[in-house]
Write a structure and sequence with these properties.
The protein has one helix and 15 strands.
């Protein structure tokens, strides 16, 4: 019996050590815990949906969202201790989480990564305000969406995207790769009117097929 108990204890310790992120029920890493080793697209299936109040990230860059399937408000977290999720607006609201790999690299496959590149435009700097999710490859005219000339910050989850100040990819255009842009360059601030994904890779495997004036 003692050997069995010892074996179970060692197994539990090994499992905890291998967890790359741990969510906790209360602030300061108290209460129940949920160990995450890979992307979880719906915490509703785990009994830990809308429960987390703090988080510990041991390895990798993680994105946590307040809706299932990585929708709604999302925050990207680096390795470290997050004693409260309140300031992020995610306290008792986390419904999905996925690993993004090392910062600056393409996200790892799994958890819907690669199932469709996404870019998220925000109405205010610092990823605040209204959001417009671009999960299609081309939006030639944001005027039809109610988000024309409104974007002030940008998050690119996958792929390389081009955004322009005029509809149909005219005007001033800039290309953005995976990452977070808490403030847009001055020429694009509150001026984006069109955008599209131009490639999944960089450098380009062939000449970009951009529209030319």
């Amino acid at each position: 019996m003692k050997k069995t108990a010892l074996a179970l204890a060692l197994l539990a310790a090994a499992t905890t050590a291998s967890a790359q992120m741990t969510l906790f029920e209360h602030d300061n890493f108290n209460g129940r815990r949920f160990d995450v080793q890979s992307s979880v697209d719906n915490l509703g299936n785990s009994g830990f949906n809308d429960v987390a109040s703090s988080a510990l990230i041991r390895q990798g860059t993680w994105q946590v969202c307040d809706d299932a399937y990585f929708r709604g408000r999302c925050v990207t977290l680096q390795p470290g201790e997050y004693r409260s999720l309140q300031s992020m607006g995610l306290n008792d609201r986390v419904s999905s989480a996925r690993e993004m790999g090392s910062w600056g690299q393409q996200p790892q496959q799994g958890g819907n990564w690669g199932g469709g590149a996404r870019a998220v435009l925000y109405g205010q700097p610092g990823f605040r305000g209204r959001q417009f999710v671009m999960d299609s490859n081309v939006v030639p005219d944001l005027n039809t969406t109610g988000f024309n000339d409104r974007a002030s910050s940008l998050r690119i989850e996958s792929g390389y995207w081009m955004f322009c100040t005029d509809a149909n990819f005219h005007g001033e255009c800039r290309t953005f790769g995976p990452g977070e842009y808490p403030e847009l360059p001055g020429g694009l601030q509150n001026r984006i009117s069109s955008g599209r994904r131009i490639t999944n890779d960089y450098p380009y495997r062939q000449n970009p097929t951009w529209h030319r004036r």
